[in-house]
């Protein structure tokens, strides 16, 4: 049990060597926790054929199969981590669980076995991102948090790079795709133990919003001057603590718009990640090294872009806190043009494969460079806007809506392709049209949303929305209605996907 009497700090005093070790281990854990989706993406055709699946089945595996579990389970685990000040312990247990489920995925022989294993993995993956960002936001000073979180999200791009190399090597040696999942699970078990041994629970850092100085009572759960309640299993204490956090995010003017914008940005990226490698492989069948080079471009350009976003935010921190929103909005809009050029690169080259590949690699590099500055910077900004003692739970709420929305992308694409055989010209054409619609639309909706959110974030930074008692407002009704509509759409789409999987 953590010491509840420790005050918040305005500037963490963690030794640099411990920060470096913690970042490396958090990066490795996050990278490995995301790795199963890269395997499904790069080995899509092999997974479908070896498990006897169809396009709808694959859409279920890459969409709501883990998305619903991931979204819902993140809330109680994140709350438990905040309430007990045991973020590292919760992260360790989650890492052990998802590692075992990765092994079970590799041992699966049919749709239902791998579906259950992926649902189980969703349980373990659920709190990883929120816990990691929460810990990083307390390990270093505020302006450095953006770069630290960007280091964490490099795992997304390194995963793509490594997957590309593995896909090429496995294809050349006829190695089964599931061997990669088993290996990742074994390595994950080792990393989980290192996380527990070397990562320490840091003292919570104050928020960007001066909560305790703006009229909120010092005894209020959201006051930065208050002491977080010691662990008590009484339902009333748990209920009040959760309610106060929900009231905080509901009263934030920018939270709704930021969350929806990030969700649509993730939807475009999720569809890109799951379907683009397979589409390009079928588009350029003579380019045997395409997946390898695709992975290298994603790994190198994506990593440089996300680190650049965190670095630029840190450099201009004293002048503006809003650069992440500008980078995300404008970068995504520009990137959508390059995505379209990627998809139609062979047509642009008049079906000349060598010229088409050259266009593909160039436009893909530009697409990633302009689009991927956002992950570390935006998620860090959200973490620093939330109440210090409940930021992990707040980040889980932030992720919940996003996951439920962006997981719909693969489901929609799977349904669109359900009557088309993989690898055929009709399948290729339908995939191209779907990607050309879903990715740019997701990027542009996100871009407009982030730009509209900028004045709202400015007002939230002033902290006036937390003055006085945090009572429910009229936004509660809108939130409940929106939640019911989203839940109904998610359930309907999931049921339809399961129905059509046969």
Order of helices and strands: HHHHHHHHHHHHHHHHHHHHH
Instruction: State the secondary-structure class.
Output: mainly alpha
**What percentage of residues falls in helices of 4 or more residues?**
over 70%
Mean pLDDT: 86
Radius of gyration, Cα only, in angstroms? 22 Å
Question: Helices, strands, pairings?
Answer:
Blueprint: H1 16-33, H2 35-42, H3 44-50, H4 55-62, H5 64-84, H6 87-106, H7 111-125, H8 128-139, H9 142-173, H10 178-198, H11 235-251, H12 255-283, H13 290-315, H14 323-343, H15 345-348, H16 353-371, H17 375-385, H18 391-406, H19 408-416, H20 425-461, H21 475-500
Keywords:
502 residues; 21 helices; mainly alpha; globular; single chain
Word description of this protein:
The protein is mainly α. 75% of the residues lie in helices and 0% in strands. The protein has helices at residues 16-33, 35-42, 44-50, 55-62, 64-84, 87-106, 111-125, 128-139, 142-173, 178-198, 235-251, 255-283, 290-315, 323-343, 345-348, 353-371, 375-385, 391-406, 408-416, 425-461, 475-500. Helix 4 runs antiparallel to helix 21, helix 9 packs across helix 17 and helix 12 (255-283) packs across helix 18 (391-406). It is globular and about 60 Å long. The termini are far apart.
